[in-house]
Model the fold of this input.
Amino acid sequence: MARLNRDTIAAVLLLALTGVFFSATYTIRKTGYGTVGSDVWPRAILVALGALCLVYLLNALRGVAGAPAETRGGGLSGWFSTYRNALSCFFMYGIFLFTLPYLGMLIGGVAFVFLLLNILGGWRPRQLAFHGMIAVFTIGAMWAIFTFGLRVILPEGEILRIW
Amino acid sequence: MIFENILGAADALFTIPTILLMILGVAAGLIAGAIPGFTITMAIVLTLPFTFGMTPIQGLATMLGVFVGGLSGGLMAGILTGIPGTPSSVATTFDGFPMARKGRPGLALGIGVWSSFFGGVISAILLVSLAPQLARIGLEFGPWDFFALVMFALTITASLSGDNLIKGLIAGALGLLVATVGSDEINGVERFSFGSEALEQGFSFLPVLVGLFAFSQLLSDVQDPVKARQPLMPPGAAAVRIEHRQAIRAVLSRWGNLLRSSLIGVFTGVLPAAGGSISNILAYDQAKKASRTPQEFGTGIPDGIIAPESANNATAGGALITMMALGIPGDIVTAIMLGALLIHDVIPSPTFITENPELAYGIFIAFFVANFIMVAVQAVCLRAFVLVTRLKMYVLAAVILAYCGIGIFALNNIIFDMWTLLIFGVLGLVMKGMGFPLAPMILGVVLGHIAELNLNRALSSSDDLTLFLTRPWSLFFLILAAFSIFFPWYQKLRGTQKWTLVYPAVMSFSLALPLFMMGGVVRPGLGLVIVLFGAYRLWRHARNGWRLEAPPDHSATLRET
Done:
């Protein structure tokens, strides 16, 4: 039943997404110079996508859609347990991006790798030292290669700029 | 002319910095390919930012080094531990690991290395000779034909990507949709930006690709907290001495298997989107069928290593043929290479080889040379591989996530690209969790612009839609697309339902039709051969009283290499 529900929900969401995009095709500006309008190709894709999503929905309701990945146990806690590490990565990466204008790539990158290593690997004192070394060495090396070797200006952040 | 082009390209390629970069690339590829969960695509993605500052030939030679190294690296883990390093070396473990357990790991590795080498060299020769010919055929293609080719590429990827065709097709359509976001290439009109300034330019191709593939793959790798904290591989991998002389003798004495498997590899590579993950299993199956002692397969025999290893390396050459001759990526790795070429303002198309002979032939030679470097570097990397296996997955994942971010930022110096990476990483993981294959979506993103451009050109020159069916090449690709849609059912039901007995024959007859329409002597002649092949199959089944045959041992599905 869980499988059926999940596929049904996915199919309904995809159909809704198709609907939103299809309605957005009417806001695409018409030009006088092109033989084929800019809305033709997206509409063709969306019609095909809509038809495929309908078939997917019907299959899901009949219970014949492919099996999705398994989760540990049922309910929200099972889902959280399955995706805990992935969610941590997303969350930390999001924080890294939000703080990038302030911390810059060097400090932000080291902090991101260090914290993520601890979240994924553990917080014991010996591990902290090991993770710290990895973070400083790997990000420091990459930052140096890009900054001095490839001459790419990585975001320096507010902190380094003040210094 | 060809000789002049080769000399000119060799002059640009054989410089100390370029060769050093290739050696580094091959070494990195070998180690990356040897690590389970760390795919060749990911290694190429990580290499890409370093190539921005290089000349096009240096950048592509480095990436080709990673590609060839990665294809060969997968065999190390497969043979020494029984866990394939990459999906393209799955079949290598069937006989490689038993041979190693019998006390001949050095010979097993040697056979793997030299089969990879010979497979790569054979495909490099075919690449040099076939790519210009295919490009010449490509010059005949009109926009209708290119559009039909893209449709075929998408349907075959969707049908080979898993057991749910609908999900594959939805993924492909979503990829096409993503490619439409932002400013329209033809009319310059903004689409689907929903008021966001960042979306006005659309999504950059590489952040989407890296997010969908590498980012989501890394997150899958660390999903299990217990496995993420364990070393990459169980103890068992140890540095061994490769028995080169005996291995060369073993490979060359089985030249029939080597040649057949290499040709299977090249052919699989030429097919849009089919990669080494398919060719190694196909070649293993064919070697088993052709063997006088098929019962020995799986017990640790040289033929069982030669077939998959020569095929997977040969696939790389095949994939490059399609990319360079038609501008259609043969697999995900060549899709990234296509992105790298675009960064250097080089657009592969049927005129690419004639307009950029130095670069095109440079790629040919680099691919050829990379195979030699691979053999030389293998022994050194074997030791590094043993060291790397002591690492834990979460360490690798955390560092690579950061590297992906830095690399993607360096692409356009825009932080929005890093957000794109995150968004598509989440999307990729969710899609994988729901059982949607990612390969069709990636191909959709890559091919979306080509499809739209050609559809636009086709409709601008004539509003007659029947041209898609009356032009021979367009009809040829549309027939292939139609049959590829039914391929998953054929593969699943082969040997259990009567209609599967006539499927190949009907496909042969249908494909012969556009070949007859092409005129001349060669193509209708080829059509006749195909018709005769189909008729022969029908006759054989009729003679057997339409008896259903047992399905094969291994079925091939596309997985990201």
About this structure: Chain B has a mean pLDDT of 85. Residues 255 and 306 of chain B are 9 Å apart (CA to CA). Chain B touches chain A through 64 residues (CB under 8 Å). Chain B has 24 helices and two strands.
